[in-house]
């Protein structure tokens, strides 16, 4: 396969530290906020597969260098491929990434992700599927895809749809940012450890000689705290979120929010409505349908369906919003995307349905997920 424009050696972008029975993987592109490029994804996949077979490895820790865990997938590289007329190379990137997501979701050994900083998009896919997710006061979680003309992928339709009430629809459609305390309370994080105690936690974990999930849990519990939610947290709006985001269509969600806003001058409502109005109408519609379908599907089914969706997005036959969103937000940075279709009412059900169908394209194949065996109960539950 052609390169995705990386000049650094694969080993440099993922640092490996060995301690007895523990392997610590550090995502090492701090200047790019550890955005996952093709080389990093391939390397992580290779390492996780090797560690699963290696009896000397009992625990895997993943963290990021600098102020991010991982700010997402390197979509700028994917857009370059599309602009050069090769959407299939972009599809190959997602194929690898989704395979890694599936491996992490069904991993037979404990994996601890230390989310001390930004964790967005592809970064969430590389951590939220794992068994232990440690947030801190520096954590910032978001799935900002609808603002880019994409949709929450990397298996997000699985984990967002399992958040309390309709919080997943809210987070996925608006791209809102959550802090560490909010991540813990809604279940995206399993623990909250103040950043000043992380070095002690890692030191304790590196002495582990067991793959027993309960033993790992007990160690992380020792360093964990129960943080207080900020006064303005969206989590205190669960009643309004459930009332509005449970609606059947994006139009109905928006109109329910606007109705709430007429009854109260509320900055949270205003910003939620603004976020929806700025996002790609096509993205909003396919994202809502994706999360709704995800509620009834296992993690593998979600990834197979999301792969179909992402191939349609890359091919750009129904809409070219992904290319336009990346231009406006990441490349030209004018923050003024021209969406097409430009309004929710112009996005027909037929258009939406196309994203969920197999591609009628010579040589295109469905996502083939690796066969998994000897899975722990926690992983079987996700299938």
From TrEMBL:
<comment type="function">
    <text>Hydrolyzes 3-hydroxyisobutyryl-CoA (HIBYL-CoA), a saline catabolite. Has high activity toward isobutyryl-CoA. Could be an isobutyryl-CoA dehydrogenase that functions in valine catabolism.</text>
</comment>
<feature type="domain" description="Enoyl-CoA hydratase/isomerase">
    <location>
        <begin position="22"/>
        <end position="356"/>
    </location>
</feature>
<comment type="similarity">
    <text>Belongs to the enoyl-CoA hydratase/isomerase family.</text>
</comment>
<keyword id="KW-0378">Hydrolase</keyword>
<protein>
    <recommendedName>
        <fullName>3-hydroxyisobutyryl-CoA hydrolase</fullName>
        <ecNumber>3.1.2.4</ecNumber>
    </recommendedName>
</protein>
<dbReference type="InterPro" id="IPR029045">
    <property type="entry name" value="ClpP/crotonase-like_dom_sf"/>
</dbReference>
<dbReference type="InterPro" id="IPR032259">
    <property type="entry name" value="HIBYL-CoA-H"/>
</dbReference>
<dbReference type="InterPro" id="IPR045004">
    <property type="entry name" value="ECH_dom"/>
</dbReference>
<dbReference type="Pfam" id="PF16113">
    <property type="entry name" value="ECH_2"/>
</dbReference>
<comment type="pathway">
    <text>Amino-acid degradation; L-valine degradation.</text>
</comment>
<dbReference type="GO" id="GO:0006574">
    <property type="term" value="P:L-valine catabolic process"/>
</dbReference>
<dbReference type="GO" id="GO:0003860">
    <property type="term" value="F:3-hydroxyisobutyryl-CoA hydrolase activity"/>
</dbReference>
